[in-house]
Amino acid sequence: MSAGASMDFLRSFASVGYAYDSPRVTVLEDSIKTEKMETNVTEDCKGAKLADVVFIVDESGSIGTSNFRMVRTFLHRIVSSLDVSQKGVHVGVVTYSSMPTAHIYLNTFDDKNEILQFLNILPYQGGGTNTGAALNFTREEIFTEQKGRRKGVQQVAVVITDGESDDNVTEAAAILRRDGVTLYAVGIENANKAELEKMVSYPSHKHV
User: Fold this and answer.
1) How far apart are CA 154 and CA 177, in angstroms?
2) CA distance 3 to 197
3) Cβ neighbours for 64, distance < 8 A, ≥ 6 positions apart
4) What is the CA 192 to chain-centroid distance, rounded?
5) Per residue in 110-160, pLDDT tens?
6) CA 180 to CA 177: how far, in whole Å?
7) What is the pTM of this model?
8) Which domains does the chain carry?
């Protein structure tokens, strides 16, 4: 579920809907393979060709090595379908468990192949699930002009998580949304759907 942009928004720059609550990451991969683009082109779809998109990826211990490999594949497929360029889509990547880590800032790469190569080796650490801290970190350290945030460009964050957060996500998510970021969530395995719905942009059924 999410809020702000419509479901067509993510479809416009990735061949998959923006938010999912799915028992397995493989379901997400299947939806990428089978999703059909809708014929109606909304304003959100047009805007998606020019966007700053940050993926906030849960790497907690409950994910496990095999599932994290599938998360890498999922990210690889989405980024492959983005119009990544200096004047197009910019991509950032944050992973988090007990603590968040910035791997790619919005101004790190403007070459899609470099991002894809990095995603292939995105490290997995394990640990707790502090989603609220990751949202605050992303707002303070990633969505900044110094790190590549562009004025007048759609700002999008996609949280990928499999479990209930160990900290409070509601306030952190609200602050991030107030900062002009459309927030989507991808729920994997044991994700708390109610928590995801509180996190994402309105209406939640379009962003989770």
Assistant:
1) 12
2) 9
3) none
4) 17
5) 899 999 999 999 999 999 999 999 999 999 999 999 999 999 999 999 999
6) 5
7) 0.77
8) 7-34+45-190 (3.40.50.410)
